[in-house]
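for the writeup, i need someone to sanity check this before i put it in the appendix. the sequnce is what the collaborator sent (i think, or maybe the updated version? ugh). structure was predicted straight from it, no edits. if anything looks off just tell me and ill rerun, i have time this weekend
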Amino acid sequence: MSDAGIGAAVQLPATEEQLSAWEARFRPYRRHPSRECLIAWLCQFSEEHQTIAHRVLDSVILLSEDDILQGYKGTLESLPGWSKKPDERSGRWFFVGMGDAGESGQAMLRLFREANGLAADRWQSLCVMPRELPGLALKAVDSVVFVDDFAGSGQQMVDYWPIIEELVASEAHCYLALSATTTRAEAEIRAHTEFDIRAPLVLQEEHNLFSEACTTFTNEEKRLLEEYGKRASKSQPRGFNDCGLAIVLSHKTPNNSVPILHANHDNWISPFPRQLIQVAA
């Protein structure tokens, strides 16, 4: 038997430089993908399609916890009428995590408070649950800041607005503070709610990997990405509401991002799983 090939280097699906760069850039994720994880993900693509997968990873926008904190800080500082000094505020101010206990809004409210120096107990009276809003007897001079992480299509906020409107039950100014959003979501929320939406990062149509505005991939490559997306998620191969995004937040990947980045089940593994434990497909 010939010794030819014994000890030869294993062919990797990307260069060492690429793998090292991705591993370093993705470190802020809650369980950042290791080099082995990235290799395993890339190997799910046919060899002739791996350069497409490279460009998907290159397209990822990852917001670190520090990015989120700085964004929340800038948002509150920009709101007219707010001051940490009570006698300098315009009306009363309240901060609300979007959704019920256990949902992302409550976790993001904690980050929002930390970012703005409002974490101490003495600020607790300004932070309320949605169900407490009716008891506040809000007036037009008051402001309520609803905090959440991300809006991709805007559908969830539009669906939630009638509940918010009933809870606020006044002309109080309702802000929606997000870490990031899209132009699509902004338009939907502004058209169908009275939220004054604020987000430091607004993704454009070109950030939808399947949009005609996205020039990172050819039409044929977009078709191939959708085929791989069907392996990751039969029902939403382009992400929730076909948003086609490649955004990752430090604590969780939005379902508006393409499932090849976050699905984690028997038939597909991803570098940014929404569920850390694999589930059945």
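The first helix runs from residue 16 to 25. The chain is about 35% helix and 10% strand.
thx in advance!!
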